[in-house]
Protein: 2,5-diketo-D-gluconate reductase A
Amino acid sequence: MASEEDVGTADSVVLADGVRMPLVGLGMLHVSSEEAIEPVRFALEAGYRAIDTAAVYGNEAGVGQAIRESALERDDVFVTTKVWNTDHGYDETMRAFDKSLGRLGLDYVDLYLIHWPMVSVGKIAETWRALEEIKRQGRTRSIGVSNFMVKHLEQLARDSDEVPSVNQIELHPWLQQRELEGYHAAHGIRTEAWSPLGQGKVLQNPTVMAIGARHKKSAAQVILRWHIDCGRVVIPKSVNGARIRENIDVFDFVLDSDEMAAMASLNTDRRIGSHPDSPPTVGLPFDD
Structure:
């Protein structure tokens, strides 16, 4: 469960390294660079203060343009990007980060993640060492991982004393990843849920809809609120203005203990995306 800071009107959390991170961000998977500009611009105007992208998404340039052209100060927007699977290794990651920062057109990012563990490549330690160096240089405020399981986090802990601030993982009512979240809680790692709505497949669930009816909230809002009440960061993806606005309108209610228990009962360990042991080998094309 979340701490008192994480519930109600609180819209951000402090990571273990002291960096403050918004609880709700806009995910940018499967959106082209040109198509990303308008939804990012709209989201920032609607109150979002976090945008999640990645090198492989091919839209860092559009995301960066929208941020630079907004009326917000750079420090007001939390920007996450990620190193792709083909760029593991110290030198490769350093070059990949330079390219990402160039495409974004920013002086720094707020969170830089290893996108997948890529155990078959065998360079987790080298790649993490590059992230540590990028952080030391002040070009990212925080570093973390994505799609890491407990075994991958334990391997990383053997190779480095610096613990990831965040692990961004597939997590939704059907896939609640309780063992992994327990490890996160024990080691000060913040859980960030990608596909927090289960790609929309959970929205017609009767339990979720009944909770929504009680709160006069949509099923999506109930699920996002459940994540937040569990202490997670969420990055729902949308390019639709109405849904973008709806997805951040979740700070005026909380779920009670019975509703939280009902949400917990929905777990079936059903994964929708790739398994960390079988990561995608190709992604969306992007320009250097």
